[in-house]
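Illustration: Efflux RND transporter periplasmic adaptor subunit.
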Amino acid sequence: MTNPLPSRRRARTLALALLTALAVRSALAEPAATPLGPAASASGARTGNPASSTAGDATGRLATAPVRALDGSAPLAAEGMVEAVRRSVIAAQVPGSIVALAVKAGDRVAAGQLLARVDARSAEQTAVASDAQVVAARAALDAATREVERQRALFSKQYISQAALDRAEAQYKSARAAADAQLAQAGVARTQTGLHAVTAPYAGVVAEVPVALGDMALPGRPLFVLYDPSHLRVTAALPAGRLARLGGQPRFTVEIAGIDGAITPLRATLLPSVDPATHTADVRLDLPATPGALPGMYARVTLLGATPHADEAAGAGAAGAMPSATPSALPAIAAGPAAARAAGAPIVPPARLVVPAPAVVRRAEIAAVYVIGADGRPLLRQVRTGRPAGDGEIEILSGVSAGERVALDPQAAARLR
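Result:
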């Protein structure tokens, strides 16, 4: 009987060869089948590379923008949040059922005002028992006091021995210690009873009431969130490099969503630390009395520049040099490398680069932009982004240089690669 395996192998080999030949023929015939317009034909005759010309024409229709280096004196905007300087989470200190809620969210309260009451029946009974034990201890102390006085009188007449007097003295001291202990325990019981009444520690506004009547209060469980509306501030993160280039006292303005006009803060506090991941430092801006401002509202902080000190203004003059930061104005932010500090040289950080936010494409944790190369083609380049810079721009910490052009439409740029 003839073995069918060799004939099957030959048929498979012939079919594979036929498919390969058809693929090669199709690839060779494809350029000839693609018609070129007159302009493309003429360009191809001049350059001998019609494909690169077509790509160049398409890239010319791609919207681009330059990588900008922000001037150190230009205003800088950052996002911030309104928060209360004094904000307290008032929690229960004793267990028990909540039997009374005297306030609700949004109510204004005075210092010491009753907010809630926890069931105190068990604590009150304990306090009554402690008071009774105090009465008993005091009666025992009175009896021991009279007894020791009699024993001392008898001992002075030598009617009793020293040992008998010592026993009477010991009983008196024991009774006095027991009375003191019972008195202290009664005080603890009364204090515990007082903790069942929850009061406001200061005048403010009740922001949250996360419990309801009848809920079980446990030590540490939040009952109220209280804040002082007369002391509000805005916290924002600004580039540490920009702050280090400012001398004197930085000038800020604050705009709060829903409130007309810019607000000049009463005081700016620069925290003496820098986030190593974002290279930003937090600034706290104390707000004046601002009707309508509430904790949690969005705020826009604008850094206008700095008011130079008198000695800095004298030295900065005609040269137009940016005065170096002073430790008194910018604690721990103006500090540079050890060598620069030892030499007293001003620390000039690199320029702050920004690009339009739509130019940045993100995939998972990777950010990139399409940079227009020397041949006019968009090239995907990974970058490291920073904080939003305002006006629809975002800071680029590394990956591009000032003056390079980036594509504003990453999807269109990807099709032209």
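Reading the tokens back as a structure: The two ends are 60 Å apart (CA to CA).
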